[in-house]
Amino acid sequence: LAKTTQPISMDSYEGQEVNITCSHNNIATNDYITWYQQFPSQGPRFIIQGYKTKVTNEVASLFIPADRKSSTLSLPRVSLSDTAVYYCLVVSQVGYQKVTFGTGTKLQVIP
Amino acid sequence: DTEVTQTPKHLVMGMTNKKSLKCEQHMGHRAMYWYKQKAKKPPELMFVYSYEKLSINESVPSRFSPECPNSSLLNLHLHALQPEDSALYLCASRPPDNSPLHFGNGTRLTVT
Q1: Does position B32 have pLDDT exceeding 60, yes or no?
Q2: Which of A24, B33, B40, B52 matches a 20 to 30 Å C-alpha distance to B21?
Q3: A contacts of B4 (beta carbons < 8 Å)
């Protein structure tokens, strides 16, 4: 099971782009990288998922280098409502295996 | 709103009580997960059901007893819990393709 490492916390001003990096050195061939956002007392909410290179959706971009040992979640022009914990997960696509969370990154957006 | 519904939203129980948490999804997902989350900590995996069969038990104490009566429903039966079992209990489901987990908003459990 690939272990993930993220910064414990980050601060950003409103309107700035935020990049959160995740390290996953022992990622396996069948693993995808998935990011979730969680607000207090709510379930984690899916943000974006990718296998390699770059993936973009309406809320974020995910950059994955060729060796796939790290990934970067990019949130464009954050607002106060983006204050949350962001989790990077490495998820196997083979069967229904364990899906475990790392420590996550607490993002605080400052006005 | 989420597509995974957990009830009740809040539960207070004594250490001698028996209660159950319920999780429902109608998306046709065939894997369902229970997680426990303490304050300011990440969710911890407890159980995984795959095609209504228990496939993963993360050495959870027997006072937590999961049940999957059908593909849409997942229960967590609670008995003789301890105050340290107070936490947010999250349920998630996953489709058979590469799609990610869908989480409910959890049941906030307080054991007194």
Answers
A1: yes
A2: B40
A3: 43
